[in-house]
Amino acid sequence: MRSRTALAFVLTMTGCQTEPITADTLDAAWRESIGWPELDPDASVSAFIDNPGAIAGELSVLTGGGSCLVTWSMRGDSTDCRDCEYGFSVDLEVVEDTCGMGSPIGITFSMNRGYVYADYHRLATYVRTGNTILFDSRYDDVGEMEDPYYGDYYYGYTNDYYGSATLLAR
Fold this sequence. Notes:
Helix content is 12%, strand content 42%. The protein is mostly beta strands. It has one domain (2-168). The protein has an eight-stranded antiparallel β-barrel with strand order 1-2-3-4-5-6-7-10. The protein has a two-stranded antiparallel sheet with strand order 8-9. Mean pLDDT is 76; it is low at 5-15, 40-46 and 143-155.
């Protein structure tokens, strides 16, 4: 009798299992906040990336007193960089250009001491949530301001940099 009860219990429990946890069953906002699953299809799945092998995202510059906007898609692989937490050799491809100033370019995009840098020029402070990096100099209290002089001409405004990126696994 005891073995029949145990067998019935096992069969009942086997038939009542819950669905496995997958990316589709998780809250979309939570998945985005931790950057999971990674955008790179060859990446190993991890909840928090400490040693990223790549990065993908967007970088925008607002210039001309807010009249000109250039947005690039950004994608690249990790690289060595001087005095930085993370460094990436990225290719920027123009996505939007309201003034005809943008062009494809390759830069070193890095993060260190709470700031993002393009070719070692500080752009903005950043916030990391999971594997997502958000930056926006329009809300920075301090930062490396662009010199408002060009030769003898004073143009009286600075560039604003903003964007987001996702750290990707190796």
